[in-house]
Amino acid sequence: MARFVDRVVIHAAAGNGGNGCASVHREKFKPLGGPDGGNGGNGGDVILVVDSQVHTLLDFHFRPHAAATNGKAGAGANRDGANGGDLELRVPDGTVVLTEDGEFIADLVGEGTRLIAAAGGRGGLGNASLASKARKAPGFALLGEPGETRDLVLELKSVADVGLLGFPSAGKSSLISVLSAAKPKIADYPFTTLVPNLGVITAGETIFTMADVPGLIPGASEGKGLGLDFLRHIERCAVLAHVVDCATFEEGRDPLSDIDALEAELAQYTPSLGGELADRPRVVILNKIDVPDARELAEIVKPEIEARGLRVYEISTASREGLRELTYALGEVVREYRAAQPVKEATRIVLRPTAVDDAGFTVIEDPQVEGGFIVRGERPERWIRQTEFSNDEAVGYLADRLSRLGVEDQLVKMGAIPGCQVTIGDLVFDWEPTTPAGIAMTMTGRGTDPRLERNERIGASERKIAKKARRVPGTYDEE
Ligand SMILES: Nc1nc2c(ncn2[C@@H]2O[C@H](COP(=O)(O)OP(=O)(O)OP(=O)(O)O)[C@@H](O)[C@H]2O)c(=O)[nH]1
Ligand SMILES: [Mg+2]
């Protein structure tokens, strides 16, 4: 059976956007028929999708790299590049997504819940789309944006329906091996099991999973033995089953004190996912009754344990006595537990949180460069990525865009002088006002900016967004 992996790091790489195409339509006797470069396709997303048929993160353990396909470049004759295909990764219900630093991103609950783990890059516009009255035949196109790459931690909130608790050599691995198809290592020395095993058990209509975990000893909550690691697994099981060795001759051990010792450890442990371990339903499995002394002992302690309100089952994994009854009883407890859970609602679509400053930007003084500035913002940074810097026309277009957004005005307002160093994203450059009258231009109203009239590529709505961003206090406006 599957080894059980409850925590993996995945490397998600979304597809890059395809580059836009700069092309000029050509026909016989009509050599310059206007721009006809198509747009690049968008890169594919890497998406996590909850699938109730998936129970472990094992696949990701073996294949941690996930990449969506790139968008295709645009071509002449107005042919747009194809979009890259999304890559859907199927994850178990109850997968918790964290950043590598342990910051919580999402809790994926309910069949079909989706999370964009890494967003594909946008395709670049071709020169046909960039054409305007003022720029009838642009000799450039926009570059496709690189897709996001993110390292994410996936953790299983629930690893199994039933978790086995017990001292080393109590017979936990033996039990899972006779109840399910799991074939864990079994031996008569302590700590045979080092990593948990997962078994799938059928009890009539009910199918449930059981986790065999490493043995527990007193002091585990402080890290003794395999300690905390083990408790982290137990925390993710709905039902806890004590497996008690009734045939041990070890000094100071008997079924009751074994149970008490392990309960004391559980009580010491603070579950990292919240929720109390004390609230989990419990059963007690008295094992090894094929040994005569053990059977006798089991008979003696059974009523005492039952008096604590626990269900007790006497079994032997060696002679297979009592297994059928145990299987159905566990199925019953699991069914009860499931029925008591609130109905899980599919969160349906959890989208990647969008950047708050999508429409705006901020300018700060560069702490490292005297007289320098850093411009931050989703859009200006994206525009930089879309620009092919070896093409002067493309650079001019970028400068227009930045100035229209108000970046230039803001730099002036903050005391930028021509020639100072400005950083936007990956780009560092010596700033020069776009027009010789750049500084004076801040005195004119926005509506009278001659560059605005010249350009119809930016839609009214886009301009409105930019304007609105200017009004939001704190976005960047220092007034
Ligand atoms: N006589 C008898 N021996 C058993 C029974 N169940 C398990 N054993 C023996 O007990 C020893 C330990 O069994 P395991 O299943 O490895 O015990 P475990 O609880 O998984 O132990 P750790 O992984 O070390 O925590 C082995 O030698 C088994 O053969 C049983 O019902 N009767
Ligand atoms: Mg074991």
Automatic annotation (TrEMBL):
Its EC number is 3.6.5.-. Belongs to the TRAFAC class OBG-HflX-like GTPase superfamily. OBG GTPase family. It is found in: Cytoplasm. The gene is obgE. PANTHER family: DEVELOPMENTALLY REGULATED GTP-BINDING PROTEIN-RELATED (PTHR11702), MITOCHONDRIAL RIBOSOME-ASSOCIATED GTPASE 2 (PTHR11702:SF31). GO terms for cellular component: cytoplasm. It comes from Lentzea tibetensis. This is GTPase Obg. Transmembrane segments: none annotated.
